[in-house]
Amino acid sequence: MRDLRELYWSSIDNDTSRDLDQAEWAERLTAGGPDSSSKDGGIRVRVAVANVAAAVGKGSPIDIHASEQTKTVYTATRNFPMLPNQLSTDLTSLNQNEDRAAVVTEYVVDAQGGLSGHSIYRAMVHNRAQLAYSRVGPWLEGKNPLDLKIAGSAELQAQLRLQDEAAQAMRAHRVADGALEFHRMEADPLVVDGQIKAIHEVAHNRATELIEELMIGANETMAETLRNAGRSCIRRIVRSPERWDRIVELAERYGTKLPGEADSGALNLFLQAQRKKDPVHYPDLSLAVIKLMGPGEYVVIEGNDKEPLGHFGLAARDYAHSTAPNRRFADLVTQRLIEAMIDGMPAPYTDAELRSIAVRCNVQERAGHKVERTMQKRVAAVALEDEIGRKFRGVVTGASEKGTYVRVFDPPVEGRVIKGEKGLDVGDTVDVKLLHTNPQMAFIDFGRA
Length: 449
Description:
- The protein is α+β, with helices and mostly antiparallel strands.
- The chain has helices at 61-69, 85-91, 133-140, 148-151, 154-176, 206-228, 244-253, 264-277, 282-293, 329-342, 351-383; strands at residues 2-3, 9-13, 22-28, 43-50, 73-74, 79-80, 99-109, 115-132, 185-192, 195-203, 233-237, 297-301, 391-400, 403-409, 412-419, 429-438, 443-448.
């Protein structure tokens, strides 16, 4: 095990996060140096992921519980952790000013955003600064003065800028390869003295992008390493969109003709053009495409499979969830697989066991998302109780025998259209009026305005 505690590791997560799965560090390499295969030297990125596998034995009571739950469920009022809080928020959390065991994924990012120099190993790390998206993002974008923690360390400032430089290069490279670039809005309830007062809109920012890109790099490295070693693993994939024909139809409304077969590169060029042309209404289109793409899923790729299923949205052939073992069981399984590979030991799971785990993760993910959506709607129903009769602009996110649903943008909440819903389909923009809310039943009902 390497000792990397002297490096200036930092983590970025939500303001209230206590289960810190990863920390990051970067350094610029010298062009032509022994550690760089890139003409420009490149940036070496290290992503440290909490070594949960070392603390949770396979088949232990804690592991059995985690395998049944498969993920931490986050609601506005209470979280349901996959692992006990004593582990996920303490002993296996990369908390600030604590020495922690980690599995480190390392790669070099060249000026064009390409990755090389992959390696994975165990190490001891020390998180010097626990940071939040809400503070780091505006600082990187030059919108806000320095956060006090960032202001107190020139080394931390340099680290964040270097990590951001690598992340932006990686993002540009992925987009050029056809990865889809969405700008999602999330709901954040304002709670005062235990009472829900409002729902605010939280947008992704540069800090969010930084972590997304570095984690994608780590997840691709993990999947590629296992495949090259001929080892089976659980992959995270998004298949070709379930309703590509509807995406084509929406694009035609904007004067763009997409190919008849699903093409992520063509779709992304269309999305980028629309974002530049009409940024005000771009969220309508972006959300519609997300809904029409269908959900991600876990599948098993066997070690001898040379052409694995890829991730359509990321334009990635190799992708496995590995960076959140405190929160997702699939990531803990991947960590155990990579540790066995590092030690030259047989895989701790058979292919049949991996397939069973993947199925369980898919089932529980759907169930967990249902709980999260229901609780979000209950919170929103409380916040909107005094808004009956108000008109909103939104986009249709679901249209089936089960009902027609619309997501409005201010505040960003979803409800059912119970009046005038005939003829609406996913992607249609529509003006609606709030007719009724019922927090206990998680009902938010709209009618076409």
